[in-house]
């Protein structure tokens, strides 16, 4: 999962451009990746401000536009590792309870219950709610399927995760709650949009500035959950 606030851009994004020489045991592609990391202002800012990944600034920028975090009291973070989004939630709203889940291990975060398990496991939804202690009022998903290099396949796999996350949100959110999920270029597909528009007051797409220009990712933001009586039972 992996910019900055307008008022915090001064020290984190400056500096000289760093060139990386191709080492004997380093491939050209890994050299390009390393050079991009070393010259990425969001990477430098994350290091300076103590965030575990540049992805933190994507959520910061989404929150600046949609105002999700300060009013949240119970938050689920799907695909939590390495923890940048939960760090942002806790820093923005220390009173919020947070539960996160990921197949990969995540270092502990104060105030966050972390489950190391597959979100697709049938036991995962109940385990998350138990760890959180209540129904959530905000569900965040920065999950993305491992890419195979085929754009259509990668898009479909990530949309599948987003649909599963949306189903979880519809089944568990408190009325008035919100949902954020990563989708790829083209945005949420028709079926996912239908589910979200049926169950939420507003549904919008956003590409935060921290999202790399060459990346196909977008985020779908659904706010104002209508509650199970508002159409969730027949959401599909």
Automatic annotation (TrEMBL):
Record-annotated active site: 182
Top-rank taxon: Bacteria
Basic residues: compositionally biased ranges: 16-27
Domain Ribosomal RNA methyltransferase FtsJ: 51-225
GO molecular function terms attached to this record: rRNA (uridine-2'-O-)-methyltransferase activity
Record-listed E.C. numbers: 2.1.1.166
Localization per Swiss-Prot or TrEMBL: Cytoplasm
Protein family per UniProt: Belongs to the class I-like SAM-binding methyltransferase superfamily. RNA methyltransferase RlmE family.
Protein name, as recorded: Ribosomal RNA large subunit methyltransferase E
Organism of provenance: Sphingopyxis lindanitolerans
